[in-house]
Records
---
Amino acid sequence: MKILNDPIYGFITIPNTFLYDLIQHPYFQRMRRISQMGLSYLVYPGAHHTRFHHALGAMHMMQQAINVLRYKGVSISEDECNALLAAILLHDIGHGPFSHAMEHSIVEDVNHESISLLFMNNLNVSLEGRLELAIKIFTGEYHRKFMLQLISSQLDMDRMDYLKRDSFYTGVAEGNINSDRLIQMLNVVDDTLVVEEKGIYSVEKFLMARRLMYWQAYLHKTSLVAELILTKLLKRARELVHKGIDLPASEPLLFFMQNKISLEKFDDATLDLFARLDDFDIISALKAWQYHDDIILSTLSKMIINRDLLKIRLSSEKFSKDDVAALTARFLDLNNISAQDAPYFIFKGKIKNQAYSKDMEPIRILRKDQTIEDVADASDQLNLKALSKPVTKFYICFPKQLR
C-alpha cells in the first residue's frame, strides 16, 4: 500500500500493486506533463495542476463512493472495485497537450475519450487482460449500469474532483463543493445511481458551482482567447510544414503536423508517438517559433509566451460579418499583411454554458417514499430549471491596436 499526500483530501491510498503498477506506467506518468486547465494559468497563476493530480483525486473519490455503497448493501466485488478504480484513473489519459485547449488541433477529428480507450486497450494487452472489466465499464458494455454513471454522468467522480481541485488551485471559491456530503448521499436502486433526498441541496450547490466555474474559470475570456490563439498558431504551423518550410519542433509534434490522423489510422506506433507529446513540446516549439521568419507564426507565438494576447469582446448578441470586415479593413491599413491572413488575428465565434442538461441522463433523486425524480423537477429552486437552459455568448477577437 502506498500513501500520497494531496493538498485537498489529505492522504490518498493506492490500495494494491495492480493500481500502483498502472500509475507507474509511462503512459500514466505522462499526465504529470499535461496541465489540467490548459492556459488558465495565464489568468489564475496557481492553476498549474496537472491531469495526474486530477486522476489520483478522482480515484480517491471513487474509493469513498465504493465504501459508501458497500455500507448501504450494494454488492461490489473486489474485481469490480479494481475495475472502477482503474477506469477512473485512466478516464483522461487520452488528453493531448494543454488538455481541452488543443483537443482538435493535434489530432483533428479524434476526441480524447477515443484516445483514452486506445491507451486502455494497449495497456490491457501488456497487462494480460487485467483491464478487461475496466474497459467494459468505461464503454458502457457492463451490465451494472451504475458503475458507468460513477465514471461518466452529470454527477460523477470526475466532475466532483475537478470542481473541487480547480476551485482550490484557481482560488475561485464559488466552485468549491461538498463532495463528502454528495458521496454519503449516493445509493443504487434498480442498478441506477441515485442521490437520497437529503442530499438535494448539495446537488443544487454542485450544479451552481459548475455553472460559476465555467464562466469564471473554464470560459474566462482571457484563457479563452489564449486557447483560440494556440489553435490558430497550430493551424499556421501545419500550413507552413505542408508547404515544405522547416519548423523547429519535436519529432512527435512534427509527425502530427505533417499527417492528418483519423481514428482508423491510430495504430500502436501512432499511439506511442502521441504518448510522447505533452505541454513541453508545445512550449519549447513556441519559444523557437517566436523568432521565425513567418510573421504570423512569430507574432502568435510571442502573444502566448509574453501573455500579450488579442483583445476579446463578449456579447449576448451575435457579431456580424460587417463587424469583422470593419476591423479587418482597419487592420490591413495599419499592417503589412494580406486579407487572406487577417483571419489569424480577427475572428468571431460563440461559447455555451449549460450546468445541467435535461437531454442527458438525469441526476436522480430518491424520495423518502422510494419514488425517483429528476433533480430539476424535485428541486424547489427555480434557478435549477434555469441552469438546465444553455446560455450562449458570442465573442470577437482582434489586435489591441484596433481598440
---
Amino acid sequence: MPKVLVLYYSSYGHIETMAQAVAEGARSAGATVDVKHVPETVSQEIATAAHFKMDQASPEATVAELANYDAIIVGCPTRFGRMPSQMASFLDQAGGLWARGALNGKVGGAFTSTATQHGGQEATLFSIITNLLHFGMTIVGLPYSHQGQMTLDEIVGGSPYGATTIAGGQGQRQPSTIELEGARHQGKLIAQTAGKLFG
C-alpha cells in the first residue's frame, strides 16, 4: 500500500479543495494519504488584510518528512505564471534531501489554479514539475483518459501536465465538477503508479 502526500499551498481555498479531491482519488486506489499545507510566509496582518483563508484543517508539513512518502503531489496557485513564493520557499529548503538522493525514484505530480484560462496554468505546473524532476522523481500528469478536460461545453481547467482549476479574478469561481474529477483521476493514477513501484 503506497504512502502518498498531497502537499499544497492555498491562499483562498481553491487549491485546498483540489487537494482534497486529489487525496480522494489516491485513496480510491488503496493508498494511505496525508494532506498537508506548507507554512504561510506573509505576516498575519497582511494575510488578514488580503482575506487569506487561514482556517485550513490540514496540518503544516515539514521538509524532513517528504522522504517518508512514496509519492508527493504538489499543488499551489500561480503567481505571475510560476509557483508562489510560499511553495518555492518550502521546496528550496529541501537541499539536504536532494543532496542525499532521498526523493530519487519517488512518484510526483502537480496541480494548480489560475484566475483566468490563460493565466499561466501550464507554466505553473512546469515550475512545480521542474523542482520534482531535480529531486529525481517520476512524474505522472493528467492524461486524456480524463476526457473532461477536452470539453467544449463549458470553461474548464485541466492539462496533460496536471489537474487545474480556474478561480476567477476575484476568486469567485470554485472548482467545477469536471475539474474535481480531473484532480481525483490524477490522484488515483499517481497512487496506482506508486503502488506498482513500491507495492
---
Amino acid sequence: MFNCLQEDIRSVFERDPAARTSWEVLTCYPGLHAVVLHRAAHWLWSREFRWLGRFVSHLSRFLTGVEIHPGATIGRRFFIDHGMGVVIGETAVIGDDVTLYQGVTLGGTSWNKGKRHPTLEDGVVVGAGAMVLGPVTVGANAKVGSSAVVVKNVPSGTTAVGNPARIIDGEQAQRREEKAGQMGFSAYGLSANQDDPLAKAIHGLLDHAVDTDRRVEALIKRLESTGVSVEGELATADEFDPKYLGRIVDYSI
C-alpha cells in the first residue's frame, strides 16, 4: 500500500505542473484521496464485506466529490486531476497510468447484470466533462476530448472528440483540429444528417472551400502548361482532401 501511495504521488508530479511538494499533494489533492480510499473500499468489497466497502466509498464521495464504486478495478498510478464530479461505475476496468479530469463519467447504459461499464486500457487520458458509456473499450494511449460522449470502442493511440464521439484520424488531422479550435471553429461536432441550420451552413461553406480549391488547382495547372512558373507557397500549399474532411466531420466511431 505504501509503495502504491509513493507511485501515486510521483504520478501527480509527472502530470500536474502545479504540484509543489509531496506534503501538499498528500494533504490537498482530492483525486489522490479518492484513489487511496477506493483501494480500501475495493479490498473490503472483494472480500465480501460489501456494505462496509460501499460505506467507505460513500464516505470518499462526501469528502472528495469523486464517486467510485468499490467494485471498480483500477490499476497503478491512476490520477484524477481536480476530481470533482468524477463518477466510475461498478464494472469499470481502468489500466495503469490512466488520467481523468474533472466531471468525467464512466457509466453504464443497461440495467442488466454483468459487464456494463467501460474498460480504459493503459495510458488513456479522458478530458474534463467527457462521458464514456457502456461496456466499450478505450484502447491503450488513446485520448478522449473534453465533453466528448463515447459509446463505441476507441482504437489504441487515437483521439476521440465530439458528441457522439468521432475519431480524429492521424497527426495531421489533430493539428488541423487544434488550429480550428484556436480560431473558434471545430468541425467534429457536425454531422451531415443534422437539421441544425448552422450545421448546414457550415457544411455549405466547407463544400465551397472544396470547390475553390479545385478551381485554384486547375488555374495553376493551366498556368504551368503555358510555361508560367508558379513558385512559393502557392505551389507548395497543402492539398485539401474532401474525403479526409468527410472522415473528420461524419465518421462516427
